[in-house]
Specification:
The chain has about 280 residues and is α+β, with helices and mostly antiparallel strands. The chain has helices at about 1-10, 45-55, 105-110, 115-125, 130-135, 150-155, 165-175, 185-195, 250-275; strands at about 15-20, 30, 65, 70-75, 80, 100, 210-220, 220-230, 235-245.
């Protein structure tokens, strides 16, 4: 897309990656798609996948209750650390320490509200190593989940999760095609992501009637959004937008950029659908 590449070229001091796969036409749009970045909260999608895998294999029940704690071990030296409520987008769990919550609800909070506390609780329950192993088993390249959130000792040593726009689109495509665990599990994961409460990027400039199952991510100057878009009367398309370099204090700039890219791609795909007579 010449228009898209021209638009991105205006952001001289930013890194912007785009990876799109259209399930209707099998066409791809790739711009800087292999650049590996800090995935921020988009890494919560593979955590969700591992939760569903273990539930499918009978290793846990979605209705099992987990004790809510705020003490986790660094992968560097097993020293304990806690999450700061002020750095989390979901606060209710912090007010319920020592109570319990179901794995099903923790999974929903992790995706819909991007709860860091829910994420770390789930990663402890399913084992972070199993999350990464499942990613590799699915054949998703250039994506790694090796630690929980806010493990600052690991972060300072450069021990971080990683992903690219292309790897994220591969992951979301597998979910859209019903190829992660089972069609039923994928449908349930899509339903969770359809409830996303942060909609400033991929869905923002699309018609209100268009459904988008997606997961946002933000950390410092990294702003991302990955999702499945469901235009009417056709199969969906998968889109991943990764950005780095937008100022942390002005997140609207990043959201506006991603929303404009999302709209360009939506219009291009719909135009191709009309041209092809679909």
């Amino acid at each position: 897309m010449i228009q898209l590449e021209h638009f991105i070229s205006q952001f001289k001091d930013k890194s912007i990656s785009v990876a799109v796969y259209d399930l209707q036409t099998q066409k791809e749009i790739l711009v800087n798609a292999n650049e590996v970045m800090h995935p921020a909260s988009t890494m919560k999608v593979p955590v969700m996948m591992e939760v569903f895998r273990q539930a499918h294999e009978g290793l846990l029940s979605m209705d099992e209750h987990v004790k809510i704690v705020n003490s986790f071990k660094s992968i560097v030296d097993k020293s304990e650390f806690s999450l700061e409520m002020a750095d989390d987008s979901e606060h209710t769990l912090y007010k319920r320490i020592d109570e319990t919550e179901s794995i099903r609800e923790l999974t929903r909070l992790m995706i819909v509200c991007s709860s860091n506390l829910a994420t770390n609780l789930l990663m402890e329950r399913v084992d972070t190593e199993h999350v990464d192993t499942f990613i590799k088993r699915l054949g998703i390249a250039n994506m790694t989940v090796i630690r929980g959130l806010e493990d600052k000792k690991a972060y300072r040593l450069g021990i971080n999760n990683s992903a690219s726009a292309r790897s994220s689109t591969h992951m979301m495509r597998l979910i859209a095609e019903g190829r992660v665990i089972s069609k039923e599990a994928c449908d349930e994961m899509i339903q969770i992501m359809l409830g996303q409460e942060f909609n400033e990027s991929i869905p923002a400039l699309l018609p209100a009637s268009i459904k988008v199952a997606h997961k946002t991510g933000w950390s410092g100057s990294f702003f991302h959004d990955i999702g499945i878009v469901f235009p009417p009367n056709r199969r969906p398309y998968v889109i991943s937008l990764f950005t780095h370099g937008f100022p942390e204090f002005n997140e609207n700039e990043a959201h506006t950029c991603m929303a404009q890219i999302s709209r360009m791609i939506f219009e291009e795909i719909l135009e191709e659908t009309v041209d092809d007579g679909r």
